[in-house]
């Protein structure tokens, strides 16, 4: 018994990393547009450096991305050629509500996504739509302080009502917030949070998280009301934490690190704040303001499935001498001496994916969906734009095998698998184009030069055969 017959193979992108067209079709400015390439990127996405508009001194790669706004038909045709059953993409909130707090949506934005979904449907590709992949209209950041303000729950609800009704019958798989735990690690990128001098950052982050969790529950409620066929998932940046040694303190450090990430999903999947989180918040003097009915809402509208990104496992220790950190997806971790690493220092651990899947399935007993997994690497194309990316094939092959083991040998219920950046796009972490994940090479460099031409890499045909064989032919 391999993968289910209706297994959803595909790839994933995010609007702010590929769409471009930042000022077209009536779209408004969003937080994600304002993350510059270069050394100031991290201070901006962490909410420590104020950048509420473009300036002359920085390059902003999200402005144009890979121009999918104008080229989505070409790109979807390539995905269809690979045999995609699903395509995970995100909606740019400021395309539908340019400021975020309008009563009426922007028709041009609605039409753009409708055309995109119809294009997917033409090829039998099921859209998997992330409602918010870090996007927050800048008007909501400046006027309301972004998600720290409870009013955003209402604005998000308005967005959801509009898109669920408009795309009924076109989309049935939805994710409420991408990597919701990122609010703790990259608050401006994750949720539009910028901190003024002297503010209690932890208090603000957890209050904002409460608002997002409420919004997620409301979205789930509306989705099910509008169309009982709708399936709604949550999404976390996953990767099990290993103890560096069998020293009990290391084991405890790993457990605590896991819980920090599970906390959000515990609420979205089980419908209540876990005891350990309430204790931790109380110890740290964090008091979440809840209104009457909040607890009932969270309890009544839990998600249908758990989706997650997996790039690597992590390691925790209490030994100060061992705290040499690896690079990681915003999450630094202690180096694991047993693993190889990518060119960006991310440690490669296929078995860790199986471990993570089992941890999540044991914890929640809900179907899983791997919506991001892949290898960021420097690709060197030949004169025809062809890339022989055997390293990417090897990475994906090992991870798909681990995923298969979790399904066949461990009984994990898995709905589908979408590789991250199925077409080269702008890196969320570093803002580079040179950190490529795709099966399709896009002629674009870190400074924004290039033809934007699309060419198939070696991995394109490899993934095509994986899908055609439902994962049997790796």
TrEMBL record:
BP GO terms, sorted: carbohydrate catabolic process
Positions annotated as active site in the UniProt record: 372
GO cellular component: cytosol
GO molecular function, one term: beta-glucosidase activity
Keyword Hydrolase: yes
Keyword Hydrolase on entry: yes
PROSITE patterns xrefs: GLYCOSYL_HYDROL_F1_1, GLYCOSYL_HYDROL_F1_2
Keyword annotations from UniProtKB, A to Z: Glycosidase, Hydrolase
Residue ranges crossing the lipid bilayer per the database entry: none
Family classification: Belongs to the glycosyl hydrolase 1 family.
Protein's name according to its UniProt entry: 6-phospho-beta-glucosidase
Gene name in the database record: ascB
């Amino acid at each position: 018994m391999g993968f289910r017959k209706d297994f959803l193979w595909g790839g994933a992108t995010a609007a702010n990393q590929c769409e471009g067209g930042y000022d077209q079709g009536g779209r408004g400015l969003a937080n994600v547009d304002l993350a510059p390439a270069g050394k100031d990127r991290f201070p901006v996405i962490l909410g420590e450096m104020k950048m509420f508009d473009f300036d002359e001194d920085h390059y902003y790669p999200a402005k144009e991305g890979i121009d999918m706004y104008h080229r989505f038909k070409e790109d979807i045709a390539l995905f269809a050629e690979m045999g995609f059953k699903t395509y995970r993409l995100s909606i740019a909130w400021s395309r539908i509500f340019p400021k975020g707090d309008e009563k009426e949506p922007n028709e041009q934005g609605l039409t753009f996504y409708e055309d995109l979904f119809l294009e997917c449907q033409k090829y039998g590709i099921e859209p998997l739509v992330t409602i918010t992949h870090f996007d927050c209209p800048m008007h909501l950041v400046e006027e309301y302080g972004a998600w720290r303000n409870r009013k955003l729950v209402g604005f998000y609800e308005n967005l959801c009502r509009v898109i669920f009704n408009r795309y009924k019958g076109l989309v049935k798989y939805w994710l409420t917030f991408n990597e919701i735990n990122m609010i703790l690690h990259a608050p401006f990128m994750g949720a539009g949070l910028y901190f003024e001098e002297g503010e209690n950052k932890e208090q603000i982050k957890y209050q904002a998280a409460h608002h997002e969790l409420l919004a997620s529950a409301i979205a789930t409620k509306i989705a099910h009301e509008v169309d009982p066929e709708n399936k709604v998932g949550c999404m976390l940046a996953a990767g099990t934490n290993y103890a560096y040694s069998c020293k009990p303190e290391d084991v405890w450090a790993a457990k605590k690190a896991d819980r920090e990430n599970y906390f959000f999903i515990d609420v979205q999947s089980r419908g209540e704040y876990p005891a350990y989180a309430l204790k931790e918040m109380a110890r740290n003097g964090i008091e979440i303001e809840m209104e009457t009915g909040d607890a009932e809402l969270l309890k009544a509208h839990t998600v249908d499935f758990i989706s997650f990104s997996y790039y690597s496992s992590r390691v925790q220790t209490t030994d100060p001498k061992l705290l040499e950190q690896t690079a990681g997806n915003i999450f630094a971790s202690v180096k694991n001496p047993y693993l190889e690493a990518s060119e960006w220092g991310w440690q490669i651990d296929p078995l860790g994916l199986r471990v993570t899947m089992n941890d999540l399935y044991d914890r929640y007993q809900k179907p899983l969906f791997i919506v991001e997994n892949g290898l960021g690497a420097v690709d060197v194309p030949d004169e025809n734009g062809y890339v022989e990316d055997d390293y990417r094939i090897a990475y994906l092959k090992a991870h798909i095998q681990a995923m298969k083991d979790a399904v066949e040998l461990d009984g994990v219920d898995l709905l589908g698998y979408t590789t991250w950046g199925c077409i080269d796009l702008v890196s969320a972490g570093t803002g580079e184009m040179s950190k490529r994940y795709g099966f399709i090479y896009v002629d674009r460099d870190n400074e924004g030069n290039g033809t934007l031409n699309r060419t198939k890499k070696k991995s394109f045909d490899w993934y095509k055969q994986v899908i055609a064989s439902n994962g049997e032919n790796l």
